[in-house]
Amino acid sequence: MEAMQRKLSLMGEQARAAARRFARISSSKKNEALQRMAQALEKRENEIVAANRIDLQAGELKGLSRALLDRLMLDSHRIHEMAEGLRAVAALPDPVGEVVRMWTRPNGLQIGKMRVPLGVIGIIYEARPNVTVDAAGLCLKTSNAIILRGGSEAINSNRTITAIISQAAHDAGMPEGCIQLVDTTDRLAVDVLLRMNQYIDVLIPRGGAELIQKVVLNATIPVIETGIGNCHVFVDEDAEMAVAERIILNAKTQRPAVCNAMETLLVHAGIARQFLPRMVQKLEEKQVEIRGCPITREIVPQVRLATENDWYEEYYDLILAVRVVKDLDQALEHIFQYGTKHSEAIVTRDYRRARRFLQEVDAAAVYVNASTRFTDGFQYGFGAEIGISTQKLHARGPMGLEELTTIKYVVYGDGQIRE
Amino acid sequence: MEAMQRKLSLMGEQARAAARRFARISSSKKNEALQRMAQALEKRENEIVAANRIDLQAGELKGLSRALLDRLMLDSHRIHEMAEGLRAVAALPDPVGEVVRMWTRPNGLQIGKMRVPLGVIGIIYEARPNVTVDAAGLCLKTSNAIILRGGSEAINSNRTITAIISQAAHDAGMPEGCIQLVDTTDRLAVDVLLRMNQYIDVLIPRGGAELIQKVVLNATIPVIETGIGNCHVFVDEDAEMAVAERIILNAKTQRPAVCNAMETLLVHAGIARQFLPRMVQKLEEKQVEIRGCPITREIVPQVRLATENDWYEEYYDLILAVRVVKDLDQALEHIFQYGTKHSEAIVTRDYRRARRFLQEVDAAAVYVNASTRFTDGFQYGFGAEIGISTQKLHARGPMGLEELTTIKYVVYGDGQIRE
Hints:
- Two copies of one chain form a homodimer.
- The longest helix of chain A is centred in the first third of the chain and has 20 residues, at 2-21.
- The first copy, chain A, folds into two domains: 2-101 and 120-225, 3-Layer(aba) Sandwich (Aldehyde Dehydrogenase, Chain A, domain 1); 231-374, Aldehyde Dehydrogenase, Chain A, domain 2.
- The mean pLDDT of chain A is 95.
- Chain A has helices spanning 2-21, 27-43, 45-62, 66-72, 76-91, 130-141, 155-171, 188-193, 209-218, 241-253, 269-285, 294-299, 308-312, 328-338, 351-360; strands at 99-104, 110-117, 120-125, 145-149, 179-181, 202-206, 231-235, 262-268, 289-292, 304-305, 319-325, 343-347, 365-370, 387-389, 397-399, 405-416.
- Chain A is an alpha/beta fold.
- In chain A, helix 10 packs across helix 11 (269-285).
- In chain A, strands 10-9-11-8-7-12-13 form a seven-stranded parallel β-sheet. In chain A, strands 5-4-3-6 form a four-stranded parallel β-sheet, sandwiched between helices.
- In chain A, 52% of the residues are buried.
- In chain A, strand 4 (145-149), helix 7 (155-171) and strand 5 (179-181) form a beta-alpha-beta unit.
- Strand 13 (365-370) of chain A pairs parallel with strand 16 of chain B.
């Protein structure tokens, strides 16, 4: 434990020193570094593929699933995509230094609220090695030092990638230690990281529910929670049925294994008899398994009966819970009770109910007549995404570059003192 | 433990339900409630004074210091001030519902970023019973439910005050349970509160360093850290000496026991011999004890020698550490090493060094030619203050009403789906 603490403290100190040196580095220098990192990845593709092969072989021996092995795999195309990601980040505007508001007090003090880096960001993530490049690029763009802790399955890939990009960044004049990887698969490292308040300003866990819970419950450093979603679509009494159908198919089947996919469909009792038979048929054509409330089963008897558990479930799969509700209030009540405050949608033509839904649902993103699948940094036009925050502090919903900054007040005086 | 958990869970459920009902309550209704709460405090002054007397007597028996007893004491004038505080909050603009940005995507989706309440806020605080009214008013104004946990010394005062204001709020149509006090002095209650993730969105500890550390290290709920400050003033080589003198006297002596008071003075070597003798004399006239570095003692030999510890110390008292530094870089290095990122000031006439100081110092507030004492919600023109955040996540520096809100994305579509 102590040896690990010493080792990580050293990394922390280097990261803190790097974060400090960022204050004197211009945007154009940072963009140049991002370009050099992209180039280096492509140029040293063979090294990455070789390291990745070791991880893949170890993964096969360990019996990782096909899906996990696929996520882990890097080839020429995927390496090119990672490089293109860095180039896209280079092209975005730099939020650091933006003065979002400036005002003058009666005593003449001029006060500005300026965006500045968070400092040192710790990212704890699982299988996919592209997160290494992605997170490093976004943090460098926002002048944050980063400490990466990837999954043990990808350790060789991550080690090689980090060596390549941190070397390229350093060659381009970035501070030494601004991109570091915790180069061990020892689980102790995570326990130590979670309590390094002296060195790390924010922790962002990216991965499954178990990882996120572990970080939230054990970290003493501020955490940005990401990625859990039990999302609902409510079809109102006078919804346009074709619109509802399209949105539901999209929200459930376009990519079911993500946090902004729909998990429960709520249907107004006044439209259920007309709407459900055809909707269920369309869903079943797409291999969606339906679990319905008793009223749903009266209308479409072939579906399985939903249990209380189904309302809580985030399937991340082609399964959908369906409940008939008597009105908007019951829909709101259901969302309040079972929702995870991620993304919620209403399909309606009624102005007043649309307004009420937007007003009364407490979630990161609330939609009228659109798919919940839009909750995403790229879809919102941020040009980047470090994750989707499901907490209320600091950042909520898709997090882009701005969410990797904090503010400081810069105050210009002429000798003012407080009376 | 279990009984306490049940009791607090019940409070949490009520708070969550109240937070939800706030979504349908207008600003004007909330302002009316704040007025009614103010009236009720003044009308029922005698009850408050009587309850406060019990606390004061118990405090005397326990041997509380004069200063603590004074903080605890409520009289007609202080009750009137609390009521006026509520009226001032009523008069401020309501940040809830403000759409800070709205844009339209190429696919026609209209996306708005709207300020919404945080939900349920837990405040853990010490002696002063005025915090009860203050925090309850700010949370009500921002449609947040509040769970208050005050110090055991003020339990009777807090109980009476909470009964009065929550009754008045309820009479004015506010949701039941929107203002609740943890009505026990059992320390177990705090341990339970710190882990009530299911019910509480944010915890704000207000009080001494020990309380804040306890909350930061043990809470699983997001915390906003407040109030620790080791602030510096750096007098540059070509500072105007009269300006430096005025700022230093103000930053050190106007109110030494607060977090934005100066603790260490840094003086450029090029001006130290001219500047320090007179400055030290002026400070000593104000009863300030000086602890100087060796060079300082060469110039003003009567002062005590500072130890390494003094650079870390937050005295909150009429004591000042003084160090002569060879240039701006050494001043920046000192602030980086010993500072707590609260408030830092430079006194200079040099344009370039002013800009470098603003750019390179990482703190909630950075000043050129002004006193660090300005770091305050009222001084910044926010009209209110719930504390001064010394962390980087969510809020940094003085927190007004806006900092008691989060955002949600409201998205208007016409049937858009993700391709």
